[in-house]
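Q: Could you write out the predicted structure for this multi-component system? I'm mainly interested in how the pieces pack against one another.
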Amino acid sequence: MLWTKTFIPTLREDPAEAEIASHRLLLRAGYIRKLTAGVYNYLPLMQRALHKITNIIREEMDASGAIEITMPVLHPAELWQKTGRWDTVGKEQMRLKDRHGRDMVMGGTHEEVVTWIVRGELRSYRQLPLNLYQIQDKFRDEIRPRFGLMRGREFIMKDAYSFDRDETGLRIAYNKMVDAYFKIFKRCGFDVKMVESDVGAMGGTNAHEFMVLVNTDGGECTILSCDRCDYAANIEKAVSIPMALPKSNEEPKSKEMVFTPNMRTIEEVTAFLKKPAEKLVKTLVYLADGKPVAALIRGDRQINEIKLKNHLHCLELEMADPATIVRLTGAQVGFTGPVGLKGVPIVADIEIKSMVNFVVGANRDDTHIINVNLDDFSVDEFIEIRCAEAGEVCPRCGIGHLVSSRGIEVGNTFMLGTKYSDPLGARFIDENGEEKPFIMGSYGIGVTRTLQAAIEAFHDEKGIIWPKSLAPYDFHVIPLFMSEPRQKEVAFDIMSKLEQAGYSVILDDRDERPGVKFNDADLIGMPVRIAIGEKGLKEGVVEIVRRKDLKMEKVPVEKAAERALEIYREL
RNA sequence: CGGGGCGUAGCGCAGCCUGGUAGCGCACAUGGUUCGGGACCAUGGUGUCGGAGGUUCAAAUCCUCUCGCCCCGACCA
């Protein structure tokens, strides 16, 4: 392909809208352009990279036995109402009405639709297992779209749905998908980490995320993994065995009110009372679907709202507003405590059980209570609601310690069970003539986000460094001066040899200065570049450079294509 | 949804405070000189100053409303 015959609008300056490297590079290198918040045009280079990755995905999905279909983007509301997700997925769902006033949704995922298909067509266990997948546009009205393709409102996703007769079948299907995912991401050039995750609004019993580890600002999630065994989980899901505090042999004392003028935060109170944060108990008041609940957690810990939410079985969990806190506790925010707190259920983190003589708010302005013990108030339930932290002991092997890293989620897998087949009445007849709901799984890969993750993982200050498998073109040929017939001739000759060998080539035939061409080549990131210039031709050589490390090699003109192929294959 | 910021030429920005004929760089067009890591000279074209309303002799500039976009937060007790 000739540069002047395609469309690669590179930018000389950094676009103002981009924050992280991969987003900036996608814009600068002419891969994408934003249409509106969270919605992007994919330009020719992007389109080619998309073909690369979707081919990989198709090959591996097909090899795993999954079957490709395409489902509609537009769904009738009734389907979503039947599974209850019309309400639970709520704000994220793009909704609209048709001309008859019927409610429709733009699909952000397709469990309902695929279940509807199977419900109508499959009747017997003999037809199982089945795994249907598609690669298609998805719509999600994200709270805040950001980082380009990372969190968009329209994006491309591969989604697969497995149907089995029982849990055993589901496990087999699930493991097949996990295997396929490792193969897919390996072919994309990165090692992914499979981590346990919360099932969230998807429902079901068991879920994992596939994370590309990056140590840049682009890392959107924190994951904790064991330095000894294979335990890994995202921060929402991670559990740990807390580090044993020095066993307290303190005798419980009697509680005592203390004056703490304007001391509201843990920092302020610890400084004022000269007590460490682990001797404090925070009391956080939440509204769970509008109903107040108080959560107690040690002063130096972070609460894990996902764990709390799951425990409370509520749809919406939010911190109570100051007015509500005043109404419930009789004191300003910052002085809430469990002692004497009435009319609000209290849940406490299990760590609190082993605390002695701690500090809590007094439910009276400017007052805390010290030397509080468990008998001084009643807890409705002890549960684990704190965030696990790096350094703590692994819950699986009990020996290793958790280390924290950042990653980008590129895939996820869910064991759904009958969450969708039940309400939609998708059932089959088993070998005993009994009617049973399908046992389902669902499996996603964020296609566009995976490409951006690749850029986030593979770039330098000059531009993108594509892994071979995703690069829009395999080779980038640069005749420095198109006005020089000899350079042009050599360049075109090399291109046609490479193409005949079955590889794709972009040839920069622009009438630009060499500097511009080199910089653009570094920017758009093809794996191997061949530069043909006057200096080299005088010695009868061209220059072959690998993008990865910009290592250059001078090669005789007549060996150029052959050697370029070797260099490419060694990558 | 809360807080902050920004909308001026295709892109990046200045001008706004203190109202008075809309500017700079890049890009683009033409000509010339250049030519191995983002050239130079000359000439030229380019604007609903996001939109609506208001104040004023006069509004990019001041006021009100509105739309769009970006960032932070929504794990603080």
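A: Regarding packing and overall arrangement: Chain A has three domains: 3-239+404-456, 256-383, 473-570.
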